[in-house]
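Run log, item B.
One chain of 372 residues. Sequence copied directly from the ordering sheet:
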Amino acid sequence: MNETTKNQPGRRGPLKDLRVVEFAGIGPGPFACMLLSDMGADVVTVDRPGARMADARQVVQRGRTVVHADLKDAADIERVLTLLENADVLVEGFRPGVMERLGLGPDVVARRNPRLVYARMTGWGQTGPLALAAGHDINYIAITGALHAIGTAERPVPPLNLLGDYGGGSLYLVVGVLAAVHEARLSGRGQVVDAAISDGVVSLMAQFISQGQRGTFKESRESNLLDGGTPWYGVYETADAGHVSIGALEPQFFARFCEVAGVAPEWHAVQKEEGRWPAFRDYLSGHFRQRTLADWQSILEGSDSCFAPVLPLSEAMRHPHIKAREAFVSVEGVVHPAPAPRFSRTPSAVQSPPASTKANLGSVVTSWLPTD
């Protein structure tokens, strides 16, 4: 443990008084801790000795202080426990039972810090037949009904790892942590937050669970309002092999779309004529191929037609709306997604330094000790 400590300037954001100890992992746990750091939390990541520091371009790892600890060494375990005595939150993403075997389970930590929120990020949860099984985002969304509902009529299509890892995982972990911290500050007692990706994805499916019970959700893909089943909610190719997205669901927006896009009058009442929807889809496919993506942008963008161009990430950064919102920020030559959401009085920020900073575990323990 011969790393040098770097001084960090004052943090800002609505969570600037929150101290988080993160046990190094991959996927949803680190993304959740990025969000907490953006909102001002002081996040210390405990990694194994010899672990390489994250590349500065690995933006999910931004805003951390990284310390190395051998979790099989009793002296290092004691240092980590001392660090946890002055923390508000612990985040770990190991399989169930690993932290207990290391001597860092919830019961042990609670004896040292009864108010600590112990956040556990897993795919399957702490209990259940699959709790100890390996898995990834695609598996967690598969078992919940979400993956089955996404894709073409022929086959499901994985939606990157946004729906499971980050939607059902990271975001629910952050919500759970903030709720538990709020309660702990009232009661003086922490608790375990069992954040399972599979649980979160089931929660995200609430609207479709409701529709299924009302008989308005069909389990065959491209048969529903939001899965490509209607021709006015979908993606179409343009003359230059670009793509546009149309989401003109409400009658007034569909009428506006027809007007601005130059849709032939015989199709203006097609929303009420389900039997003609396949033919209208074919019509729109040919209609959009008559112009380039830039042409359609100049015609439809901002017109209340529920239109947007389908942009690759490199072009999304240059879109006027995205630029005006400053949704991407450059920090020390590295492009970052800007912190979200936005706060009017206590703005979040990519904490400085933006990359993970290596520090000595003992020094961090000392810096977190009470000063009174």
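Observations after the first pass:
- The radius of gyration is 25 Å.
- The chain has a mean pLDDT of 94.
Flagged for discussion on Thursday.
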